[in-house]
């Protein structure tokens, strides 16, 4: 192995560790939810992709429709998901986020962004904030690679 490859491997390992720590800290800022990971994943999928049938959600999450039905039922009971007839096929139900779920997303994101803003301002000098801003483009390129 050459020196550059060794350095790149070390940077990759350090980046993975630091990003994991940062994600855990961000998650901690909006904790208080009793949702399972599967329930949270469904809510995120509905927020990002819009209304979907339970079958489409099950396929997207790689699970059986029966398992998805339990998740959807729990989310409906919690008032986070609502159903309406599918305009393309009235026999199906389109699931979407309730206003309560949308508000939880807004509140959770605000808490994370507020914590991150306060932390950046407290821990970094102006020049370091500029370095961080410049690194975001690089991280986006890495994240979007296949």
How would you describe the overall organization of this protein?
Strands 1-2 form a two-stranded antiparallel ribbon. α1 crosses α5. It has helices at 3-29, 37-49, 54-61, 65-77, 99-123, 126-143, and strands spanning 81-86, 89-97. The longest helix has 27 residues, at 3-29. The chain contains six helices and two strands; from the N terminus they run ααααββαα. The chain is elongated. The protein folds into two domains: 1-31 and 99-146, no CATH class; 34-97, Arc Repressor Mutant, subunit A, CATH 1.10.10.10. With 146 residues, the protein is mainly α. The two termini are 24 Å apart.
Q: Please give the order of strands in the largest beta sheet.
A: 1-2
The amount of beta strand, in percent, is 5-15%
Q: Give the helices and strands as they follow along the chain.
A: HHHHEEHH
C-alpha Rg, in Å? 20 Å
Q: Which features characterize this protein?
A:
single chain; 146 residues; mainly alpha; Arc Repressor Mutant, subunit A; two-stranded antiparallel ribbon; elongated
């Amino acid at each position: 192995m050459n020196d550059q490859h060794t350095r790149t491997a070390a940077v990759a390992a350090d980046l993975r560790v630091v990003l994991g720590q940062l994600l855990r800290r961000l998650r901690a800022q909006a904790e208080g939810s009793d949702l399972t990971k599967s329930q949270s994943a469904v809510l995120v999928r509905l927020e990002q992709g819009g209304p979907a049938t339970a079958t489409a959600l099950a396929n997207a999450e790689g699970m059986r429709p029966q398992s998805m039905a339990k998740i959807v039922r729990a989310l409906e009971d919690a008032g986070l998901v609502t159903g309406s007839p599918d305009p393309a096929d009235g026999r199906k139900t389109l699931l979407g986020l309730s206003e309560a779920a949308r508000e939880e997303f807004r509140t959770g994101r605000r808490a994370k962004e507020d914590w991150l803003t306060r932390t950046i301002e407290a821990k970094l000098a102006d020049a370091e904030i500029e370095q961080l801003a410049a690194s975001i483009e690089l991280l986006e390129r890495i994240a979007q690679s296949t």
